[in-house]
Amino acid sequence: MTDRGRATAREKAMSIDEIIENFELLEEWDDRYRYLIELGRALPPLPEAVRTDANKVQGCASQVWLATSIKPNGASGPVLDFEGDSDAHIVRGLIAVLFVLFSGKGAKDILSTDAVALFEKLGLREHLTPQRSNGFRSMVERIRRDANAALSMPAAAGSRR
């Protein structure tokens, strides 16, 4: 993740509890969609160099890129940070929610977090198309796969996937 991207993410730091609370305050689904799109707009731009086939998430109807940076030796194993983007506004919002949930967390914490339960708690499952729901699950699986891979890395190594 670039230094600029980290600074932007820190400035706009939000907790998953704040996102849940904001969703609960918005009664109409049109307002929730707009909020999700706003979250996506707050993502830092993804450098073109990161928009590679290796970073493309398979199983999404939209184009989705996800890059993972791994720092070794966190309290819960290696710590993962994410950068990502999509060509669809709603999906960018879903990416933003996932990054609030997972970015900067240890691999073991990532693996013990149920993102699908959060997806359902926010009411997204019944309000998004099946393709978007499948795409969300594909992004979660990719993040979980990266967390598992990070746990398998030698302790001294750090990398960017």
Description:
- The protein is of the alpha+beta class.
- It has one domain: Sufe protein. Chain: A.
- The chain has helices spanning 3-11, 16-25, 29-41, 89-102, 107-112, 115-121, 124-127, 130-152; strands at residues 64-74, 77-86, 105-106, 159-160.
- The chain has a four-stranded antiparallel beta sheet with strand order 3-2-1-4.
- A hairpin with a 2-residue loop joins strand 1 and strand 2.
- Helix 3 (29-41) packs across helix 4 (89-102) and helix 4 runs parallel beside helix 8 (130-152).
- The longest helix has 23 residues, at 130-152.
- It is globular and about 50 Å long.
- The protein starts with a helix and ends with a strand.
Summarize the structure.
The protein contains eight helices and four strands. It has 161 residues and is an alpha+beta fold.
How do the helices and strands line up, and which of them pair or pack?
Elements: H1 3-11, H2 16-25, H3 29-41, E1 64-74, E2 77-86, H4 89-102, E3 105-106, H5 107-112, H6 115-121, H7 124-127, H8 130-152, E4 159-160
Antiparallel strand pairs: 1-2, 1-4, 2-3
Helix pairs in contact: 3-4, 4-8
Keywords for this structure?
161 residues; alpha+beta; Sufe protein. Chain: A; 8 helices; globular; disordered N terminus
Distance between the termini: 11 Å
Radius of gyration: 15 Å
Structural class determined from secondary elements: alpha+beta
For this structure, the CATH topology is: Sufe protein. Chain: A
Count of DSSP strands: 4
Q: Which bin fits the share of residues in helices?
A: 40-55%
